[in-house]
Each structure stands twice: as C-alpha cells, then as structure tokens.
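Structure in, sequence out. Go:
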C-alpha cells in the first residue's frame, strides 16, 4: 500500500507513538495516508482507538517480526 508519509516509532513506548503519529498526521493533507511502524505492543490498541476517535481511517494493519505496521488515512 502506498503511503504519503512514513513514521518510524520503533523502540518508543506509550504515549510517544500516539504523540508522534498525531504530529505526523498534522503534516499531511486530508485523504493522504500515513504509514506508522511501531514496536510497542500497546500501539495496536492505542492507534486503532485513536484513529477512530480522531476521525481518521485505519486502512490496514499487519505485524512483521515484532513490528506493527499501520496505514492510516487522514479524515
């Protein structure tokens, strides 16, 4: 899946993945896609909940070798 911006928050613990994702979302246009790579196990639930409550859309999610990858479309 194509992303307009990639954010790598590997190694960061809660709440930093959300804080940095929010900042990155402010830097892209509505309809664009942010790809987030995180290693914090809590990021899966946190980012899914934040995306929904912020009016964005979680397009896809997968895990590869302990890295959680999210594709979030800005609402």
């Amino acid at each position: 899946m194509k992303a307009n911006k990639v954010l790598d928050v590997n190694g960061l613990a809660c709440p930093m993945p959300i804080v940095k994702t929010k900042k990155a979302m402010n830097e892209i246009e509505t309809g664009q896609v942010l790809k987030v790579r995180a290693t914090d196990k809590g990021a899966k639930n946190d980012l899914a909940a934040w995306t929904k409550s912020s009016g964005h859309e979680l397009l896809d999610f997968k895990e590869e070798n302990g890295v959680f990858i999210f594709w979030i479309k800005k609402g």
